[in-house]
Every structure is written in structure tokens, then in C-alpha cells.
Design a protein that fits this description.
metal ion binding, Alpha-Beta Plaits, 93 residues, alpha+beta, antiviral defense, endonuclease, CRISPR-associated endoribonuclease Cas2
């Protein structure tokens, strides 16, 4: 799993980056996404950042990618609505 955190001063750039990340994961907080990790996914994200977003950075803009190993993922402590993210949901219709 990857945790991707970002901060752009430009609203349009921030919105575009969030829309891009939605293809790979789900939003955990306003500017934080959880992404299922694979070498291909990470390569796609890094390529997109290098090609489109890096050149748009201002002095205060940032993207930080945190890899989370499976062992650490199991030790994550969650509260509130984040606690429900790990539960399996079954729907009967």
C-alpha cells in the first residue's frame, strides 16, 4: 500500500491531481490517498508526477509518497470513519 499526500496552492492543479489519484486508490483525507501498491502502479504515478505536475510546483507545493509494508499495514490504528475502511461489507439484494 502507498499513502500519497499532496499540497498544491493552485486549485486547478490540486483538483487534477486528486482526480488522477482516484484512478489508483481512495481518498482517506482531503489531500491524502491510499493506493494499492504494485510496481506498475507506482511507476505510473511517478511518471505522471514527473511529466505533468513537477513542472507546475511552486515553492510551497509538495507530493509525498509513503510506502506501507504489509506488516505495518496490519499495525495501523484507526479511529472514527477510518475504522470502517477495513471491514468487509456484504450486501444482500
Amino acid at each position: 500500500m502507498l499513502i500519497v499526500s499532496y499540497d498544491f496552492t493552485n486549485n486547478k492543479t490540486r483538483s487534477k491531481f486528486a482526480k488522477f489519484l482516484k484512478k489508483y486508490g481512495r481518498r482517506m483525507q482531503y489531500s491524502v490517498f491510499s493506493v494499492h501498491n504494485s510496481p506498475r502502479v507506482l511507476r505510473n504515478i511517478l511518471t505522471e508526477i514527473e511529466a505533468k505536475y513537477k513542472k507546475l510546483f511552486t515553492k510551497t507545493d509538495s507530493i509525498v509518497i509513503f510506502p506501507v509494508c504489509e506488516g505495518c499495514r496490519g499495525k495501523t490504528i484507526r479511529y472514527g470513519s477510518a475504522h470502517h475502511d477495513i471491514e468487509n461489507v456484504v450486501y444482500f439484494g
